[in-house]
Amino acid sequence: QVQLAESGGGLAQAGDSLRLSCAASGRWLSTDTMGWFRQAPGKEREFVAAMSWRVGTKYADSVADRFTIARTKNLVYLEMRNLKPEDTAVYYCAVDPATTRLDDRASSYEYWGQGTQVTVSS
Predict the structure, then answer these.
(1) How far apart are CA 18 and CA 117, in angstroms?
(2) Higher pLDDT residue, 104 or 1?
(3) How does pLDDT run across 29-50, given as a tens digit for each residue?
(4) How far, in Å, CA of 23 to CA of 88, rounded?
């Protein structure tokens, strides 16, 4: 089992920056792909970003020029800049044990954190 714990969410105004963190523990391997997803009220969970040491990074088009995913040891970060109201959602950290893909499908991720709320006001 892999345990994931997100932190760093909160309230922000449009144009602000926030950094989310996710700590992995348990049977986690540094070669696992780690990703961020988000889910807004009434909407499906959507891909935000993913990172694999072996493959690189991948971003959703809606955040590619504003968000950055980074990893160090067992921590994965999501640096969010120029936040917009449409970024409001619960953000989830996830692990895909496959090491050579950057999948944007939630079904490929086996482990999930509990989520952290990000609310952006206009």
Answers:
(1) 11
(2) 104
(3) 777 899 999 999 999 999 999 9
(4) 22
Q: How many of the other CB atoms lie within 10 Å of CB of 65? A: 10
Three-state SS letters, the chain = CEEEEEECCEEEECCCCEEEEEEEEECCCCCCEEEEEEECCCCCCEEEEEEECCCEEEECCCCCCCEEEEEECCEEEEEECCCCHHHCEEEEEEEECCCCCCCCCHHHCCEECCCEEEEEEC
Distance between the two ends of the chain, CA-based, in angstroms? 40
Instruction: Give the total residue count for the chain.
Output: 122
Q: Pull the structure tokens for residue 46.
A: 């959507």
For the beta carbon of residue 100, count every other beta carbon within 10 angstroms. Answer: 9
107: left (phi over 0), alpha (psi -120 to 50) or beta: alpha
Quote the pLDDT of residue 120.
98
Q: Which residues pair with 35 in a beta bridge?
A: 50, 94
